[in-house]
Amino acid sequence: MGCASTAVARHKRQVLGIIPSAFIVNNLVGETCGKEIKVATMHKRLLTMMEFLDAFIASPGGFGTLKELFQMISWAQLNIHEKPIGVLNINGFFNGLLFFIDHAVEQKFIHKGHERS
Description:
Elements: H1 2-10, E1 16-20, H2 21-25, E2 35-39, H3 42-52, E3 56-58, H4 63-77, E4 85-87, H5 95-106
Parallel strand pairs: 1-2, 3-4
């Protein structure tokens, strides 16, 4: 997220870092170029994101990124929010995941139309 947030800040847009205490304890926080909100848990991070963000864009990442992405998608399907959701598919990073989602649609585990909503 460092590169993305730096680019956003450079273009005079707001940057908000929502940082769970586990990130701080485990030294997973880089330099922040915008406002920071520290929260106690990952769940509180998601709730805070819902409160402050206009859209959710997942950039390449690991299990935490995937968990947050699918949580936001699930909440959208349950009409908990109507915020846009996207992936920043840098160098095809998410191609495998998108293929898997298409496969889940073909196998009827995800309803047609929900995969790109």
